[in-house]
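input
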Amino acid sequence: MKIIKCSKCNEFSKTEPYCEHCNQLLFTEETRKQEVLQSHNERLAKPKVDHPVLKAVKAMQNHRFFVVQMIGHLLYGIGFVVFSIISFIAWLVAAIAA
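output
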């Protein structure tokens, strides 16, 4: 029979997943899995926040004036092209380095 010391109450317990005295998990692997799962759920619960520039461009795309809408679409397109070029350069550097 294996006896494990609880890290929370410092009492000794038999080999069970939980402490007999304070009901704390005794195995650090299980505790770590629960912490990761809780952290993951907290991150999923947080609302997604858009970048202020992207929010402004989206607002311009939905503006009531046609000229402002076109400027918004133009800015969005320019951002997409710049991002695509930078991604290609990064891929090229990674391919050459490998």
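quick obs: Residues 52-97 form one domain.
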